[in-house]
Structures are given as C-alpha cells and as structure tokens.
Amino acid sequence: MIRKLLRKVFHRAAPSPAAEPALIPLERHGIRREQVSPAARKTCKVLQENGHKAYVVGGAVRDLLIGHPPKDYDVATSATPEEVRALFRRSRIIGRRFKIVHVLNGPETIEVSTFRASQDAESAETDEHGRVLRDNVYGSMAEDATRRDFTVNALYYDPERETIVDYHHGVADLQQKTLRMIGDPRTRYREDPVRMLRAVRLGAKLGLAIDPEARKPIREMAVLLENVPAARLFDEMLKLLFSGYAVRCLKQLREEGLHHGLLPLLDVILEQPLGERFVWLSLENTDQRVRADKSVSPGFLFATLLWHEVLAAWENRKAAGEHAQPALFSAMDEVLDAQAGKLAITRRIVGDIKDIWALQPRFERRTGKMPYRLIEQPRYRAGWDFLRLRAQSGEIPMELPDWWDRFAHAGHDERDALLRAAPASDDAPAKKRRRRRRKPAGASAETSDAS
Ligand code: ATP
Ligand code: MG
C-alpha cells in the first residue's frame, strides 16, 4: 500500500494532461465543415445544441488534415452514453468494457464516446506485466486527449466553429511528419502493447516517421505482445493487412523486430524463401484493391499467407505414405492449429481459408465431369484467383489457370476440345490406372504421362 503510494508520488506513470490546448483556426488547418460527413456533423450539432461538448476526434481529423478520405468517424463528447442515446432515435449503446454509442444516420454509423480519463498503472487494474485491463473512467476533455496514443490522434475538430482543439501539438507533428507518443512511450507500451503495432501501421499508412523516442523501445518490448489476447491481435492484424499499405507495414514490422516469435503468421510470411514471392504478390494485390476501394476477403489473404506452410506439411505427409487428399486436409489443420494460439482467426474466416485450399488439387483434375462440377462451385472464383496467384509466383505453370479461364468461359464444343487437349492429372496414379482399364486402346492425351 505504502509502496504503491510512494511509487505514485515519485514516479507518476500516466502523462499529466496538458494545461491549455491550442485553438487552431480554419486558416491554419484548412478543414471545412463540408469535408466532414453529414452524419458526423449532425451528431456534433445535436449534442452541442443540447448543452454538451462534441467534436470529431481521432483518425478522421488526422486523415482530413493530410488529405486522406477518412474511412469512418468518431465523435467524442461530454455527454454520458445514456444522454447520447436519449438524443438520437436511431442509436444503441454497445460495448461491455466501456460503453459507446452507435448513432445511425442514413447509411453511416457514427461512434460516439464519452470523454474518458486514463488511469495510471498504479490505480488501474493491470495484468502482471502492467497491461491495463480496464479503462473506463469518464474524465475531462483534456484527460480524454491525454489517454489517446499519439499526438496526431488527439485532435478535436468542431464542425460548427471549424476549429481544431490541439492539446499535444498534434498538428505541428503531423506537419513535420512525425508520429509522437503522448507521454512516456515505455509506459504507454506497457499499458497496451498493441500500441507498438499501431505505431508501425499508422507510420506506414500515413507516411510518418515514428519519433525515435517511441521507436527505440519497441524492439526490446516486442515480447509484451505475447500477453495480448489472441482475438485482439487478430483484429489489429486485420487492420494492418487491410490498411492499403500492408507491404509497407510488414516491411516495417520486420525492421522493428516485431514479427519474430510473436506472431507465427508473420514469421511464416517473412522467412519462408519459397513462399515469399507468393506472399508479397498477394499483399501487393490486396493493397491495390483496398486503395481502389474494391472488396477484399480476409479468408483469401490468410489462405495465401499460410499456403506454403500447408504445401510443406502436405509434402511431408505424402512422403510418409499418406494419400494425397487426406494428407492435404491434415496438413491444413496442422497449419491452422499452429496459428490459433497466437492469432485467433475467426471461425468463419477459417472456413473460407479451407474452402480455397481444398479446391486447389481439384484444378489438377481435368477429365470427365470433374471440371464441369468445379466451375459450378460457389467458391470457384476465389479458388481460381488463388490458383492464378500461385502461377504468377512461379509455383505452377501459368498454363493451368489459363486453361481453366478458357474452360469456364467456353461453349460446349470448345470445352470438349479443351478437355481432350488437357494434360494428364498428376495427382492420382491410381485413377490413371483405372482409366486405362476402362479405355485400354487409343488412350487420349489426358491419360498419358506427359504432363
Ligand atoms: P484508423 O485509421 O485505423 O481508424 P484510428 O487512429 O482512427 O486509425 P481507431 O482504432 O479507430 O484508430 O481509434 C480511434 C482513436 O482512439 C485513435 O485515433 C486514438 O485517439 C484512440 N485509440 C485507439 N486505440 C488506442 C490505444 N490502443 N491507445 C490509446 N488510444 C487509442
Ligand atoms: Mg478510426
């Protein structure tokens, strides 16, 4: 108790709130209220009209300042969740750890949170490594700014007055392209190790350099990520992989030593020479799609990230005498199980991954009714995209995805011709024998061994 008190007096862990924030006028920041989504504007307006403080906060302000279109809007307010809920008919309170309110407006959902204070490591509930487990005390606006992670994330934009309230020199940092932690970086990483991953992701996405003071401790503190729940890590990895800057993020993660031994997935991605080309191709592809606002599928991406692991495990099992098909399924489970402890890939995504993998050997069978059945599969397109990526990386000949592309788009006669011209399946010698028995004479190209 006394030790705790002394620690508190002599070593105040949490940064103290900045006294006076800077009020930055339109001429200096240039964000007009019309640039803010109508739903976020309306939400702030209603809250303000009812006597509360309300600002657009966090990522959206930061993104507007550097000319990125924000992907969603958060509003911070002095109103309690119940007060917010009462002001908007289409709203609901969500969250167990701390309550926030989703305000629905047209197609948009605005996330409204009440100003919160951070608790320092002494008074907060933490795990044995200092990770803060609960963070749900309401506080002043200044305290709300101070509990945020980076200075560029602690900017409050008032759409009515078109001003930014800046407690921690975030605007200046953004102009100088610096990602600076609020408070002592070591303390802040200890409270929440995910901030290390956020630093890398935001730095890569926004083209900001991580301030040396925030960058230096990462390597030695990386090990703290081991204590973060697997589900939270998975959420963060999804954000990273679908940020539109996955290639940059992963290169940076490697540089900061954040991938080693912590996330088996990243170890796999970055240190398998055979699959490296495949993985970078897939990530580049994902980045392009995200930036072009096209849909992306986590199942597809994770299937690519882990594919060469599956291939290796599959080969081992086949070499040990297992039959190809069951060996593939066991290899898939083996790889996914190894992953599950650290990074909790959700069950739905695991299902998608397996579908895509399980289709791959079926592309090798180009005889009889099989191809007709395959192209009718609901996951055919994803399976084919995956096949093409494998070919682009040099794992298999381009002839295979090309053949399937022609087959899928061909008329009846052309399909027959394609089937006759297809090289033999190389996956099942037993089948070849069967086919030969049925068709002893005049074996066509498909049953020859020349594949
Ligand atoms: P993105 O572009 O990915 O949405 P973001 O900064 O908006 O980036 P969010 O996860 O949406 O990220 O978080 C919204 C805001 O909440 C952040 O800008 C930051 O102020 C605060 N925040 C989020 N995560 C943390 C954290 N781990 N520690 C402290 N503050 C955080
Ligand atoms: Mg955000």
Topology:
Elements: H1 2-10, E1 22-24, H2 26-29, H3 38-49, E2 54-57, H4 59-65, E3 74-77, H5 81-87, E4 91-94, E5 100-105, E6 108-114, E7 116-117, E8 137-138, H6 141-147, E9 155-158, E10 163-166, H7 170-175, E11 178-179, H8 185-191, H9 194-206, E12 209-210, H10 212-215, H11 218-221, H12 230-241, H13 246-255, H14 264-271, H15 273-291, H16 298-319, H17 324-340, H18 347-359, H19 370-376, H20 380-392, H21 399-409, H22 412-421, H23 429-438
Parallel strand pairs: 3-6, 11-12
Antiparallel strand pairs: 1-10, 2-3, 2-9, 4-5, 5-6, 7-8, 9-10
EC number: 2.7.7.19
Domain Polymerase A arginine-rich C-terminal: 321-438
Region (Disordered): 418-451
Could you characterize what this model shows?
There is one protein chain. The chain is an alpha+beta fold. Among the domains are: 14-170, Beta Polymerase, domain 2 (2-Layer Sandwich); 298-424, cca-adding enzyme, domain 2 (Orthogonal Bundle). The protein is 51% helix and 10% strand. The protein is built from 23 helices and twelve strands. It has helices at 2-10, 26-29, 38-49, 59-65, 81-87, 141-147, 170-175, 185-191, 194-206, 212-215, 218-221, 230-241, 246-255, 264-271, 273-291, 298-319, 324-340, 347-359, 370-376, 380-392, 399-409, 412-421, 429-438, and strands at residues 22-24, 54-57, 74-77, 91-94, 100-105, 108-114, 116-117, 137-138, 155-158, 163-166, 178-179, 209-210. The strands form three sheets. Strands 1-10-9-2-3-6-5-4 form an eight-stranded mixed sheet. A hairpin with a 2-residue loop joins strand 5 (100-105) and strand 6. The radius of gyration is 27 Å and the shape is elongated. Mean pLDDT is 86; it is low at 1-15 and 426-451. Magnesium ion (MG) is lined by residues 58-59, 72, 74. Magnesium ion is lined by residues 58-59, 72, 74. It is an enzyme of class 2 (transferase). Residues 418-451 are annotated as: Disordered.
